[in-house]
Fold:
Amino acid sequence: MTSVLLTGISSLVTNDPRRGTGIAELRDAAVVIEGRTFAWVGSRRDAPPADDAVDLGGRAVVPGFVDSHAHLVFAGDRAEEFAARMTGTPYSAGGIRTTVAATRQATDEQLAANVARLVAEMRRQGTTTVEIKSGYGLTVTDEARALAIAHDVTDETTFLGAHVVAPEYADDPAGYVDLVTGPMLDAAAPHARWVDVFVERGAFDADQARAILSAGKAKGLGLRVHANQLGDGPGVQLACELGAAAADHCTHLTGADVDALASSGVVAGLLPAVEFSTRSPYPDARRLLDAGVTVALASDCNPGSCYSSSMPLCIALAVREMRMTPAEAVWSATAGGAASLRRDDIGRIAPGARADLAVLDAPSYLHLAYRPGVPLVSQTFVAGRPA
Structure:
């Protein structure tokens, strides 16, 4: 097995798990990669020999970003909806149906090509793991094919048949829940690791969501919840009650919601590029962190509420708008995302972890927030290979 020594690392963020949610940073560092994993991490002067060596020229290195919430299997464009929001039209769940219509009409090849394009775009920005949801088909066939397409590029696939009620069931939401928990789940489960529900006015209420999540759990799927995005609601409490891995959005939280997240260990997934793209209030990350809640940052890349795949943008927004420190934001975009996906092999640079990393054209991780909008990622490694 060939080994590669990376030297010339001015600042190396390792996310040593012994530090909890605090990053660990090494100066003048080096790493050794063997095959798909990290074999050694430490000071350059202590580096062991390797088969090959690469000098990174004084650049900073961070773990590859873990984007734990994205909707990449879709067709069509909603730029006009975005323009309308910028002139005052509020965001609502109803716009999803526009993408559903376009996605149903697209071929498998068209959908797969769009997913590949977006994943490549993410790789260029340092993302090495991405979770991909279905949810723009809303028929048995379309949900199953969306997940099969997603599974070709990631192991982190999520069945989101409960995104909104399918248009043909507009007058029979109970019938749609029966479809989601029955034939649609049966077709989707072989291609999915997770099940998710959009718990929101205009989407699904607590009882409907509980039935869908419970059915998914019975099929062996892990639980995720779109929670409390557009207003106060039952999503966070439901996620905590059922032991979900993550409650994502968490924009509108009561004190009881924060307490439930802290005591349950459910990860709060914050998606600041959504608030940027919808002119909505940002989640209060400071409140969550001070309460001891584990926070993940993710892009929520989708054609409606946030057509951005940039985790560096999410880091900059989290620092500027959500009162996170740069260290907290980088941790949440890497180790926090891994916690959201219940993974301990990604989101950190340590022996035995998968060799995922992003090389920054900067001397420190601080520049991710310090230089917003600048393409700082000069190289991305996924499982030991340049992406």
